[in-house]
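[[Sequence with tokens]]
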Amino acid sequence: MQRRIRRIERHQLPYYLKVFNRITDKPMGYIGNVSLDGLMLISQLPMLVGARFDLRLKIPGQDGMRFIDFSATCQWCREDVTPGGFDSGFSLVAPPAEYVDMVEALRYYFSFHSFAASA
């Protein structure tokens, strides 16, 4: 039996994880996808390319809401295929361990494992 594992480098998460401005606590948008190095933000407003943002993810858990705080720099921004939406790519500045743990958990959750039966 041959075993094949396909791993996704960026995990598609539209409208699931909301991203907040850590300073103002105002929502900025949703994570479109994530990697260990960065994320794509889907928002209603364009992001300033080259700007550094202090961001926060609010993750619901068994013990209440958990925060993941991090800084990221906007690398690009373009209009989304959905009217009135924008996609922005961010690179993380020294991602915290909690962010790395979240990406690894999502990678495991969204990995596809397929098994080919031998004849």
